[in-house]
Amino acid sequence: ILYEIITGSPPHQGSSLKEILRSVLKSTPPAFEDSVPDSLQAICRKAMALRPEDRFADASELRDALKAFRAHRESLAISERAAEILERCQVQVDESVRGAGDRNRLYGDFAEAVAGFRQAQVLWTDNDDARVGEDRARFAFAHAALRYGDLGLADAQAELLRDASRKARALRTAIEHRRQFKLQQRRQAVNARRTLMVAVAV
Questions:
Q1: Are the C-beta atoms of 83 and 138 separated by less than 8 Å?
Q2: CA distance 141 to 115
Q3: Backbone angles phi, psi at 98, to 5 degrees
Q4: What is the pTM assigned to this prediction?
Q5: How far is CA 91 from CA 6, 97, 132, 134, in A?
Q6: Separation in Å, CA 27 to CA 49, 102, 121, 164
Q7: What angle do CA 145, 149, 150 make, to 5 degrees?
Q8: 113-166 pLDDT, tens per residue?
């Protein structure tokens, strides 16, 4: 039945019962269109295996395999969508962002990309594309926040990176250097105000 649902025709055909039985005994591997995912083909072939020990143990095992396939397929679709959003974000950063409104919209898109990759991993924990994509999105998010001086946001994303590469370490170092620079600027501004107040009082 599964094969017929997928292809639109029964796996064994013939003009008589004898011909159909002969087709079954030949056990020719079922053919699928290229559009049928490999994982779904594998499930169908296992369900149609000639030897009982090569088939699913029972209907519930087949059902679980089909549920996993659906989850995997949805996971891949979500991670692909997240990758598209991330690409759009990177283009927006490269084109420069004007004003707080544009920046907030950009941050919202980055957050949506991160959430998409996370959701894809919830549906399928072995989705490596989503795992790598989440780190890519967080890195780009942190880098954009650093570029626009939002150090708290940059630091929050950098801390959640699972990537321990030199590139990730360099990002964390850059955030810390920018934080120290801004702190030094604030101290200098405070000292300048104090000096001015003393000069005015004298």
A1: no
A2: 12
A3: -110, 125
A4: 0.64
A5: 40, 10, 19, 18
A6: 8, 62, 38, 51
A7: 55
A8: 999 999 999 998 888 889 999 999 999 999 999 888 888 889 989 888 877 677
